């Protein structure tokens, strides 16, 4: 098997990094992505105290496509 490991200040088994977003929204999903082989995971903001997020919708369909 090909060695895809990289070192970006911390060693990673491969350079595939999940960006912060919908797939980083819960511990269960993060666990599944890690088990699927992602080299690293970027989470959404984490705080000690609960805070309100942005009101929905955060994704809007328009005639030309989608606005995030």
Structure description:
- The longest helix is centred in the middle third of the chain and has 9 residues, at 27-35.
- A hairpin with a 3-residue loop joins strand 1 and strand 2 (11-12).
- Strands 1-2 form a two-stranded antiparallel ribbon.
- It is extended, with a radius of gyration of 16 Å.
- The protein has one helix at residues 27-35; strands at 6-7, 11-12, 17-18, 40-41, 60-62, 65-67.
- By secondary structure, it is of the alpha+beta class.
- The chain starts with 5 loop residues before the first strand and ends with a strand.
- The chain has one domain.
Question: What is the secondary structure topology, with strand pairs?
Answer:
Blueprint: E1 6-7, E2 11-12, E3 17-18, H1 27-35, E4 40-41, E5 60-62, E6 65-67
């Amino acid at each position: 098997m090909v060695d895809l490991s990289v070192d970006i200040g911390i060693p990673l088994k491969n350079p595939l990094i999940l960006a912060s977003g919908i797939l980083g929204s819960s511990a269960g999903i993060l666990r599944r992505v890690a088990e699927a082989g992602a080299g690293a995971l970027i989470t959404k903001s984490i705080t000690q105290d609960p805070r309100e997020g942005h009101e929905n919708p955060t994704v809007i369909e328009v005639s030309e496509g989608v606005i995030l």
